[in-house]
Amino acid sequence: MNAWRIAVIVAATSAIAACALVRRSPRVFGTFTLQCDPFGGIAEHNQAIDDRCGLDGVGSTNSVTQNRVKNNFCAPAPATVVDVATLRTLQDDVAALGIPHGKPQTIPSPADRPKLQHPDTMHGIAIGEGSLVQFVGFIIEGHYSDTSKGEDVNCKFSGDPPNDIHVAIGQALTEAECESITAEIIPHFRPHKWTILGTLHGSDGPRLRQQARLDRPLRFKGQLMFDASHDPCAPGEAHPAPPLRSSSWEIHPVYGIDVCTAGETLAACPVDGLVWKALDEFMQQ
C-alpha cells in the first residue's frame, strides 16, 4: 500500500473517530450556579444537569421567562402558610386577569408574568408568584416527570436525574388526585434523600410509602409558582390531561421537606408546631 493510500485511510479513520466523539459529547446549555441555598447545607451537585443546563433552560422567550421562575431558589422569607382554598382562589384570580394558560400549552408573555406576583385584588390574599409558602398534607403519589423527552426548563434531557419529581399532595392519603396540590422538586442540586419521593407511584406506591414511614403529614416549603402549562380539574367536568390537580399554582421549586413526628393526622401536625423533622434526618432514623 502506497503512502498516499495510507494517509487517506488514516485521515478517514480520524474523521470517523472525531464524529463519534462529537456524537457522544453531551449537549451543554450553560451551567447552573446555586445563587441561594434554600436546602440548608444538604444541596448535592447533580452532574447530569447542573453542568449542562443553566437557569434559562431552552425554548421560546415565553418559556425562558417561565423557566427562570421555575428555577428560582431565592424567594424571600418568611414563609406564608397556604391551604387548598387559597390556591383555588388564586386560580380564579388568574382567569379574571385574562392571563393565558392551559392546554394547548400556553405560557404567559414576559409582560404578563409580573401580574402573577400580586394576582388577588378582592380576597385579601397578599401572596403570589415568587412568594415563599408552606403547605401541609399527605403524599398521594410521587414520580419523576417527563423523563422520556424532557422539559424546556431541563434542556430536554431525558432520564430521571435531570428531571423534576412531581408530588401530588392531598388532605388524605386516599384523596383523589384532582383534589391535590402539586409540589415540584427540581433536579438542580437536589438532595439525594429526597429522590425517594420519585418512587411513590403506581400499584406499589402505597406499599413503598408505608415502608418509608411517609404515610403521615409532610410539610413542603418553597416558592409559589403558577405553572401556566396545565389546566386544573373542574367540578363536574371531564378530567384534563395529566397531571391532575385542583389548581395550577404549585410549590415550585421545593426548598424544604419536613415529616411530622407527632402522629399520622393533620390535627396532630400543626404547621408551626415543634413536631417536624427534616426529611433527610427522618430517613436516617
Describe this structure in words.
The protein has helices at 3-24, 47-50, 61-70, 84-97, 205-211, 279-282, and strands at residues 80-81, 132-144, 165-170, 181-185, 218-226, 249-260, 276-278. It is of the alpha+beta class. It has one domain (50-282). Strands 1, 2, 3, 4, 5, 6 and 7 form a 7-stranded mixed sheet that branches. Residues 6-12 and 15-23 have low confidence and may be disordered.
Largest β-sheet summary: 7 strands, mixed
Number of discrete domains: 1
Mean pLDDT: 91
How many helices does DSSP assign? 6
Order of helices and strands: HHHEHEEEHEEEH
Radius of gyration: 22 Å
Oligomer state of the chains in this structure: single chain
Record keyword descriptors for this entry.
alpha+beta, 6 helices, 285 residues, 7-stranded mixed beta sheet, single chain, 7 strands
Element layout with pairings:
Elements: H1 3-24, H2 47-50, H3 61-70, E1 80-81, H4 84-97, E2 132-144, E3 165-170, E4 181-185, H5 205-211, E5 218-226, E6 249-260, E7 276-278, H6 279-282
Parallel strand pairs: 1-2
Antiparallel strand pairs: 2-3, 2-5, 3-4, 5-6, 6-7
Q: Summarize this, please?
A:
21% of the residues lie in helices and 18% in strands. The chain is of the alpha+beta class. The protein has one domain (50-282).
